[in-house]
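Take just one protein record:
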Amino acid sequence: MQRFVCLLLFGLIVATRSIEAAPPEPLRVMSFNIRYGTAKDGPNHWDLRKDFVVETIKAFKPDLLGTQETLGFQKDFLAEKLPEYTAIGVGRDDGGDKGEMMAIYIRKERLDVVASGHFWLSETPDVVGSQSWDSSLPRMVTWADLQDRQAADRPQIRWFNTHFDHRGIEARKQAGRLLRERLAGTTGKALIVTGDFNSLETSEAYRNLFGTIDGHASPVLDVFKSLPKEKQPTGDTATFSNFRGGGPRKGGRIDWIGVNDRFRVVSAEIDYTERDGRTPSDHFPITTILEWRTPGAAEKE
Protein backbone atom coordinates (compact mmCIF):
# COMPACT_ATOMS: atom_id res chain seq x y z
CA MET A 1 0.00 0.00 0.00
CA GLN A 2 2.77 2.40 0.97
CA ARG A 3 4.59 1.60 -2.29
CA PHE A 4 1.40 2.31 -4.26
CA VAL A 5 0.97 5.68 -2.54
CA CYS A 6 4.59 6.61 -3.25
CA LEU A 7 4.22 5.70 -6.92
CA LEU A 8 0.99 7.70 -7.12
CA LEU A 9 2.64 10.75 -5.59
CA PHE A 10 5.61 10.40 -7.94
CA GLY A 11 3.27 10.22 -10.90
CA LEU A 12 1.44 13.35 -9.76
CA ILE A 13 4.72 15.24 -9.38
CA VAL A 14 5.88 14.21 -12.86
CA ALA A 15 2.51 15.15 -14.37
CA THR A 16 2.53 18.53 -12.61
CA ARG A 17 6.03 19.30 -13.84
CA SER A 18 5.06 18.29 -17.35
CA ILE A 19 2.12 20.69 -17.26
CA GLU A 20 4.30 23.47 -15.87
CA ALA A 21 6.90 22.87 -18.58
CA ALA A 22 4.38 22.82 -21.43
CA PRO A 23 5.23 25.50 -23.99
CA PRO A 24 2.74 28.34 -24.43
CA GLU A 25 0.20 27.94 -27.20
CA PRO A 26 0.72 30.11 -30.29
CA LEU A 27 -0.65 33.63 -30.11
CA ARG A 28 -3.32 34.50 -32.66
CA VAL A 29 -3.39 38.11 -33.88
CA MET A 30 -5.91 39.80 -36.17
CA SER A 31 -5.93 43.32 -37.65
CA PHE A 32 -9.31 44.41 -39.01
CA ASN A 33 -10.47 47.72 -40.44
CA ILE A 34 -14.20 47.32 -39.81
CA ARG A 35 -15.32 50.48 -41.73
CA TYR A 36 -16.92 53.28 -39.74
CA GLY A 37 -20.51 52.54 -38.90
CA THR A 38 -22.14 55.78 -40.07
CA ALA A 39 -20.93 55.48 -43.67
CA LYS A 40 -23.70 55.51 -46.27
CA ASP A 41 -22.80 52.09 -47.65
CA GLY A 42 -26.24 50.96 -48.80
CA PRO A 43 -26.36 47.15 -48.79
CA ASN A 44 -23.03 47.13 -46.93
CA HIS A 45 -24.22 49.38 -44.10
CA TRP A 46 -22.96 48.46 -40.63
CA ASP A 47 -26.37 47.34 -39.41
CA LEU A 48 -26.52 44.79 -42.23
CA ARG A 49 -23.05 43.35 -41.72
CA LYS A 50 -22.20 43.80 -38.03
CA ASP A 51 -23.07 40.21 -37.16
CA PHE A 52 -20.95 39.05 -40.09
CA VAL A 53 -18.02 41.04 -38.67
CA VAL A 54 -18.43 39.29 -35.31
CA GLU A 55 -18.69 35.87 -36.95
CA THR A 56 -15.50 36.53 -38.95
CA ILE A 57 -13.65 37.46 -35.77
CA LYS A 58 -14.94 34.43 -33.89
CA ALA A 59 -13.97 32.11 -36.73
CA PHE A 60 -10.30 33.07 -36.31
CA LYS A 61 -10.46 33.27 -32.49
CA PRO A 62 -7.76 35.92 -32.03
CA ASP A 63 -6.00 36.45 -28.74
CA LEU A 64 -5.37 40.02 -29.90
CA LEU A 65 -7.75 41.91 -32.19
CA GLY A 66 -6.75 45.35 -33.44
CA THR A 67 -9.53 47.30 -35.15
CA GLN A 68 -9.54 50.52 -37.13
CA GLU A 69 -12.30 53.02 -38.03
CA THR A 70 -14.21 51.89 -34.95
CA LEU A 71 -16.80 54.37 -33.71
CA GLY A 72 -17.93 54.25 -30.09
CA PHE A 73 -21.13 52.34 -30.74
CA GLN A 74 -19.20 49.81 -32.84
CA LYS A 75 -16.65 49.35 -30.06
CA ASP A 76 -19.48 48.75 -27.61
CA PHE A 77 -21.27 46.33 -29.94
CA LEU A 78 -18.12 44.23 -30.39
CA ALA A 79 -17.45 44.32 -26.65
CA GLU A 80 -20.99 43.05 -26.00
CA LYS A 81 -20.70 40.27 -28.57
CA LEU A 82 -17.16 39.37 -27.50
CA PRO A 83 -17.41 39.35 -23.68
CA GLU A 84 -14.33 37.16 -23.39
CA TYR A 85 -12.20 40.17 -24.40
CA THR A 86 -11.06 43.31 -22.63
CA ALA A 87 -11.81 46.30 -24.88
CA ILE A 88 -9.68 49.47 -24.92
CA GLY A 89 -10.17 52.50 -27.15
CA VAL A 90 -10.79 56.25 -27.23
CA GLY A 91 -11.93 58.63 -29.95
CA ARG A 92 -9.18 60.23 -31.99
CA ASP A 93 -10.84 63.68 -31.86
CA ASP A 94 -11.07 64.21 -28.12
CA GLY A 95 -9.55 61.18 -26.38
CA GLY A 96 -13.06 60.29 -25.23
CA ASP A 97 -15.99 59.22 -27.35
CA LYS A 98 -15.65 61.55 -30.34
CA GLY A 99 -14.22 60.21 -33.57
CA GLU A 100 -12.91 56.89 -34.79
CA MET A 101 -11.08 54.62 -32.37
CA MET A 102 -8.17 52.25 -32.74
CA ALA A 103 -10.05 49.90 -30.42
CA ILE A 104 -8.20 46.81 -29.29
CA TYR A 105 -9.56 43.59 -27.82
CA ILE A 106 -7.53 41.27 -25.58
CA ARG A 107 -8.59 37.74 -24.69
CA LYS A 108 -8.94 37.75 -20.91
CA GLU A 109 -8.12 34.11 -20.26
CA ARG A 110 -4.84 34.39 -22.18
CA LEU A 111 -3.44 37.86 -21.46
CA ASP A 112 -3.44 40.32 -18.56
CA VAL A 113 -3.40 44.05 -19.29
CA VAL A 114 -0.55 45.64 -17.34
CA ALA A 115 -0.84 49.16 -18.78
CA SER A 116 -2.36 50.92 -21.77
CA GLY A 117 -2.49 54.33 -23.40
CA HIS A 118 -2.73 56.38 -26.57
CA PHE A 119 -0.68 58.88 -28.56
CA TRP A 120 -1.33 60.90 -31.67
CA LEU A 121 0.56 60.75 -34.95
CA SER A 122 1.69 64.35 -34.94
CA GLU A 123 4.58 66.59 -33.93
CA THR A 124 2.97 66.74 -30.47
CA PRO A 125 1.99 63.08 -29.95
CA ASP A 126 0.89 63.53 -26.35
CA VAL A 127 -1.57 66.30 -27.23
CA VAL A 128 -5.04 64.80 -27.58
CA GLY A 129 -6.56 65.30 -31.02
CA SER A 130 -3.41 66.84 -32.52
CA GLN A 131 -2.52 66.60 -36.19
CA SER A 132 0.49 67.73 -38.20
CA TRP A 133 2.07 67.76 -41.63
CA ASP A 134 -0.57 67.24 -44.34
CA SER A 135 -2.80 64.93 -42.30
CA SER A 136 -6.46 65.34 -43.20
CA LEU A 137 -7.66 64.15 -39.78
CA PRO A 138 -6.26 63.40 -36.33
CA ARG A 139 -4.56 60.02 -36.40
CA MET A 140 -3.52 58.01 -33.38
CA VAL A 141 -2.10 54.86 -31.83
CA THR A 142 -3.60 52.80 -29.02
CA TRP A 143 -1.12 50.62 -27.15
CA ALA A 144 -1.12 48.08 -24.34
CA ASP A 145 1.45 46.25 -22.24
CA LEU A 146 0.40 42.65 -21.78
CA GLN A 147 1.55 39.61 -19.83
CA ASP A 148 0.93 36.24 -21.41
CA ARG A 149 -0.48 33.96 -18.71
CA GLN A 150 0.99 30.94 -20.45
CA ALA A 151 4.47 32.46 -20.69
CA ALA A 152 5.49 33.75 -17.29
CA ASP A 153 9.15 33.36 -18.25
CA ARG A 154 8.74 35.50 -21.37
CA PRO A 155 8.81 39.30 -21.46
CA GLN A 156 5.76 41.51 -21.49
CA ILE A 157 4.26 42.30 -24.88
CA ARG A 158 3.88 45.89 -26.01
CA TRP A 159 1.24 46.09 -28.71
CA PHE A 160 0.60 49.14 -30.93
CA ASN A 161 -2.53 49.47 -33.09
CA THR A 162 -2.90 52.35 -35.56
CA HIS A 163 -4.42 53.84 -38.70
CA PHE A 164 -2.34 56.17 -40.92
CA ASP A 165 -3.88 59.07 -42.83
CA HIS A 166 -5.62 58.26 -46.11
CA ARG A 167 -4.60 61.47 -47.90
CA GLY A 168 -1.43 62.97 -46.50
CA ILE A 169 1.68 61.41 -48.03
CA GLU A 170 3.98 63.38 -45.73
CA ALA A 171 1.79 62.49 -42.76
CA ARG A 172 2.16 58.79 -43.52
CA LYS A 173 5.93 59.11 -43.94
CA GLN A 174 6.29 60.93 -40.63
CA ALA A 175 3.87 58.58 -38.90
CA GLY A 176 6.08 55.68 -39.94
CA ARG A 177 9.08 57.41 -38.39
CA LEU A 178 7.25 58.28 -35.18
CA LEU A 179 5.91 54.78 -34.72
CA ARG A 180 9.35 53.30 -35.39
CA GLU A 181 10.84 55.61 -32.75
CA ARG A 182 8.28 54.49 -30.20
CA LEU A 183 8.96 50.85 -31.04
CA ALA A 184 12.73 51.35 -30.87
CA GLY A 185 12.36 53.09 -27.52
CA THR A 186 10.58 50.09 -26.03
CA THR A 187 13.32 47.93 -24.55
CA GLY A 188 13.09 44.42 -23.18
CA LYS A 189 9.59 43.73 -24.47
CA ALA A 190 8.08 41.59 -27.19
CA LEU A 191 6.66 43.89 -29.87
CA ILE A 192 3.55 43.65 -32.01
CA VAL A 193 2.18 46.36 -34.30
CA THR A 194 -1.10 46.15 -36.21
CA GLY A 195 -2.94 48.59 -38.40
CA ASP A 196 -4.26 50.05 -41.62
CA PHE A 197 -1.35 52.06 -42.97
CA ASN A 198 -2.90 53.29 -46.22
CA SER A 199 0.50 52.67 -47.81
CA LEU A 200 1.99 50.07 -50.12
CA GLU A 201 5.18 48.08 -49.58
CA THR A 202 6.92 50.39 -52.04
CA SER A 203 6.08 53.51 -49.99
CA GLU A 204 8.38 55.57 -47.84
CA ALA A 205 5.97 55.07 -44.94
CA TYR A 206 6.57 51.31 -45.18
CA ARG A 207 10.34 51.78 -45.42
CA ASN A 208 10.32 54.14 -42.45
CA LEU A 209 8.65 51.50 -40.32
CA PHE A 210 10.13 48.25 -41.61
CA GLY A 211 13.24 49.21 -43.58
CA THR A 212 16.89 49.69 -42.69
CA ILE A 213 17.68 53.34 -42.02
CA ASP A 214 21.29 54.59 -41.75
CA GLY A 215 22.44 51.02 -41.30
CA HIS A 216 20.00 50.32 -38.46
CA ALA A 217 17.45 47.54 -38.87
CA SER A 218 13.86 48.13 -37.87
CA PRO A 219 12.72 46.93 -34.44
CA VAL A 220 9.98 44.92 -36.17
CA LEU A 221 9.57 42.66 -39.19
CA ASP A 222 6.57 42.49 -41.52
CA VAL A 223 5.06 39.08 -40.69
CA PHE A 224 4.35 38.38 -44.37
CA LYS A 225 8.03 38.92 -45.18
CA SER A 226 8.97 36.45 -42.46
CA LEU A 227 7.35 33.62 -44.40
CA PRO A 228 9.20 31.47 -46.94
CA LYS A 229 9.14 33.11 -50.36
CA GLU A 230 6.67 30.62 -51.78
CA LYS A 231 4.14 31.43 -49.05
CA GLN A 232 4.32 35.21 -49.34
CA PRO A 233 1.55 37.05 -51.17
CA THR A 234 2.75 38.84 -54.28
CA GLY A 235 3.59 42.50 -53.87
CA ASP A 236 0.39 43.50 -55.65
CA THR A 237 -2.02 41.40 -53.55
CA ALA A 238 -4.68 43.71 -52.09
CA THR A 239 -6.02 43.96 -48.56
CA PHE A 240 -8.73 46.45 -49.59
CA SER A 241 -11.85 44.58 -50.68
CA ASN A 242 -14.35 47.39 -51.33
CA PHE A 243 -16.91 44.89 -49.93
CA ARG A 244 -16.47 42.59 -52.92
CA GLY A 245 -15.74 38.88 -52.53
CA GLY A 246 -13.92 36.76 -55.03
CA GLY A 247 -10.65 36.13 -53.24
CA PRO A 248 -7.22 37.62 -54.02
CA ARG A 249 -7.01 40.65 -56.27
CA LYS A 250 -4.53 43.31 -57.28
CA GLY A 251 -4.09 46.52 -55.36
CA GLY A 252 -1.32 45.96 -52.80
CA ARG A 253 -1.21 45.35 -49.06
CA ILE A 254 -2.08 48.47 -47.06
CA ASP A 255 -2.81 46.57 -43.82
CA TRP A 256 0.27 45.26 -42.01
CA ILE A 257 1.32 43.36 -38.89
CA GLY A 258 4.84 43.61 -37.52
CA VAL A 259 6.62 41.74 -34.71
CA ASN A 260 10.10 41.62 -33.26
CA ASP A 261 12.36 38.62 -32.88
CA ARG A 262 10.78 37.45 -29.65
CA PHE A 263 8.34 35.62 -31.92
CA ARG A 264 8.52 33.12 -34.74
CA VAL A 265 5.90 33.65 -37.43
CA VAL A 266 3.95 30.43 -38.00
CA SER A 267 1.51 31.88 -40.51
CA ALA A 268 0.39 35.20 -41.99
CA GLU A 269 -2.73 35.39 -44.11
CA ILE A 270 -5.27 37.65 -45.73
CA ASP A 271 -8.75 36.49 -44.69
CA TYR A 272 -10.97 36.32 -47.78
CA THR A 273 -14.16 35.43 -45.92
CA GLU A 274 -17.24 36.37 -47.97
CA ARG A 275 -20.94 35.71 -48.06
CA ASP A 276 -23.18 36.12 -51.10
CA GLY A 277 -20.34 37.91 -52.88
CA ARG A 278 -19.78 40.43 -50.07
CA THR A 279 -17.06 40.75 -47.46
CA PRO A 280 -17.72 41.80 -43.84
CA SER A 281 -15.90 45.10 -44.34
CA ASP A 282 -14.24 47.09 -47.11
CA HIS A 283 -10.89 45.69 -45.96
CA PHE A 284 -9.95 42.05 -45.71
CA PRO A 285 -8.83 41.27 -42.16
CA ILE A 286 -5.25 40.06 -41.90
CA THR A 287 -4.05 37.47 -39.41
CA THR A 288 -0.88 35.98 -38.04
CA ILE A 289 -0.09 33.10 -35.71
CA LEU A 290 3.01 33.56 -33.56
CA GLU A 291 5.09 31.22 -31.45
CA TRP A 292 7.20 32.44 -28.58
CA ARG A 293 10.87 31.83 -29.13
CA THR A 294 12.58 30.18 -26.19
CA PRO A 295 14.76 32.63 -24.25
CA GLY A 296 18.03 33.19 -26.10
CA ALA A 297 16.84 31.50 -29.31
CA ALA A 298 16.71 34.74 -31.32
CA GLU A 299 20.34 35.52 -30.52
CA LYS A 300 21.45 32.09 -31.77
CA GLU A 301 19.66 32.27 -35.13
